[in-house]
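Ticket #4471: structure output looks truncated?

Reporter: J.K.
Steps to reproduce: submitted the chain below (300 residues) through the standard prediction queue, then opened the result file.
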Amino acid sequence: MRTLVTGGAGFLGAALVRALRDAGDDVIAFDLAPVDGVRGDLASWVDVTRAIEAARPDRIFHCGALLSAIAEADVPRAVRTNADGTFNVLEAARLMGVRQVVFTSTVATYGEGAGDPVSEGAAQRPATIYGVTKVYGERLGEYYASRYGLDFRGVRLPSVVGPGRGATGVSAYSSLMIEEPARGRPYTVPLEQRSAMPILYLDDGVRALLDLSAAARPPRHVYNIAGISPTAAEIADAVRAAIPAAQIDFDPDAASQVVLDSWPVAIDDSPARAEWGWTHDRDLQGLVDTFVTAARKEAP
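Returned output as attached by the reporter:
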């Protein structure tokens, strides 16, 4: 199968590209950053259409986006990349006969008061421009499905963690407080110890995208994906169990805390489990142990 991955040089996108190539797909990565594929800007209609016209993919995994912290710092750019970029992908896919578009959305589309756990039917009232643009992407994809028959599918992912996640976005703490000690460095968490949000290991996030793409037409377009929801203190304890010498401290930043507190703590993903067989059974210590082993293997 021929597959185009937007954001193909990013954390999730690059892992997805590797998994697709390992499975034998002919994969084209599209990203603004230097990439083994096509370099281009999602906000540019010309860049997106040229890439899709040249690749002629059977399906597109649309993973490219500006994450929360960068998006909040530059709202106009976030709208161009996340909202206009999603329109460009969907419209170009329609014009060029792409069979399927799989969209990466986020649990940040929900806001305070959405419930605990958050169900599929909860109102989406995001507190960040990142979440706002992702709600737009979901609704636009559903419109293209009903109006033009495009096979549009999406997952609302929690914070995806793993080596190489980087420091971009408020949610980055959940990766950095594991990766930095694994590499022998101290880490100060910019949030309160009580802070909690859903997290999912990178390999499981990739599997969710691949499984949804491969499923017989599911009855809805976008699905919640839940991982586990440990507090920052619980993550620290699991890291210390794996790395007794780990140095983890807490120094909360008020602005970061406000953003994180607007996100849901727990997610109901029972429709994904029932309707296309999604499963996830990795516990916190298992996630941390897997992460630490992978980070040390990648260490220079």
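Triage note (M.O.): checked the attachment and the full token line is present. The two ends are 34 Å apart (CA to CA).
Status: closed, working as intended.
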